[in-house]
Amino acid sequence: MEKNFAFSRMNYILLIVGFVIVIIGFALMTGPSTTEQAFEPDIFSTRRIVVGPMVCLFGFLFEVFAILWRKPHRKAE
User: What are 7-12's contacts with CB under 8 Å, separation 24+?
Assistant: First the structure.
């Protein structure tokens, strides 16, 4: 008896890859914060306000792709 699961093994692998991409994006947004005693200009760096969010967005879009991905069917010859 063959079980039909909603996701294949490849879907799970792609989901894990997307999750890692999102984590990398959040890691790119981290850094020192501004305190009441000192202003930290790094909070406005390109890495933190452009690159990190774009990587996260790509990771979330990749997650959608991983959920919708299906194994291509071969045509009968």
Answer: 7/67, 8/71, 10/69, 10/71, 11/66, 11/67, 11/69
